[in-house]
Amino acid sequence: MNQRPALASLAEWLINQRTAVLPDDILHIARRCLIDTVGVMLPGSTRSVSEKIRQTLPLGEGEACLIGLDRRTDPLSAALINGVAAHALDFDDNCYAGFVHGSAVIIPAALAVADTCGASGEQLLRAVALGSECQYRLGMALDNQLYHAGWWTTGMLGAVGACAAAAVLLDLDSGQCANALGMAIACASGMKAIFGTDSKPLLAGLAAQRGIMCAFMAQAGMSGPVDVIEHPAGLVALCNNRRLIRKWVQEPSSQWCLREPGIDVKRIPVCLSSHAAVDALLCLRQQHGFTARDVTRIECNVPEIVCINLKYDRPVNGQQAQFSLPFALAQALIAGDVTLSHLDDANVLTPELQTLMAKVSSHTGTRWSEATLATLAPEGAEITVYLNNGNSHSHFVAKARGAASAPLSDDELSNKFMQCCQSVMPGDSAHKLLTHLWRIEEPANQHMSSYWRATS
User: Fold this and answer.
1) pTM
2) Which InterPro entries is this protein grouped with (predicted)?
């Protein structure tokens, strides 16, 4: 007996949820994602990769806001440009349902469509929540095998979340939505070879653009491969070793991925694979009071995926430094943390930092073969610091501060937002924008476009 295509079931769930009463905690999670993403998007809009995109791309006319700029354009351009800005600093959130940077793709897409169709703040927030959940359920169905095989799942699956959010805002029916999602998956792309290059934020932006384009195309009547997941020449056959956990896409339940595994918010602006190691080192530093001058070497026992992701042992610029465990640990030990200012190319090349980076080594020990650690500590770290007085100290961290299991408080998230805005807007304007984002649904009939005008 032929099974119903997974996308048909997922699309039906999505459209039914569009008018349902969503749980308060789910909306709050979506609100936090929105605040965090807009916060990192603002300074991201000033990075060279964002400037290159704006210089290269011919902009059309429209109502979609370019975040951080007093400029509006067509939704496809806005989704691309804002998506690049959202991921330019690699300071945006993560979700282990697919190993993805979800919000950096979904939120730029949702903002572009919301501005274009005059959606309210409440409608935007609902679209972000449902678009995110749709993508994360597909990620769970694929069981993270895509990521471990070398695909960059933010590029591969991001268009699904962007498309789903757009479908909610455009009021597509379930058939149109299934066609749109099929097109989005059929156009999927992304390989982890891009890490440490401009192509990484570019692919995030392209996923946002591709997602809303597929939604607009389906609205216009275009068909898509609704069976693209299960097809003999489809996603799971070609890219996922035929692995598909159907319950996540064919039997949607009250188990929200936004709750579990949840959203990991970054406390520092480097690849999440280095966060647990940084937290472990800073804990040892605080407990034992050593400084960089006291250290002879630092050994890191980390999962294989951490070694793969953090591929730059001797970074030569800020972009590479974001994917360097030696940089993250050396910078944290010298300065007590890692901040956006530390990603300056000149800072990466300072002799003190380079000397300390040379003292850091990493390997994958036998403890990571334990099945439970794949869930409990997918990017965990055990750090051993050796001192010139002969002493050594070790510490293990399963998940870093900011993870869904150890979340930043709302106040801490607000502080991150304000710190991100320091270099791009006056403090009173940043506070006004932050206050608005915390109250995004009030009033429900106010159009999103007026919010951006009020804070530009």
Assistant:
1) 0.94
2) MmgE/PrpD_sf, MmgE/PrpD_sf_1, MmgE/PrpD_sf_2, MmgE_PrpD, MmgE_PrpD_C, MmgE_PrpD_N
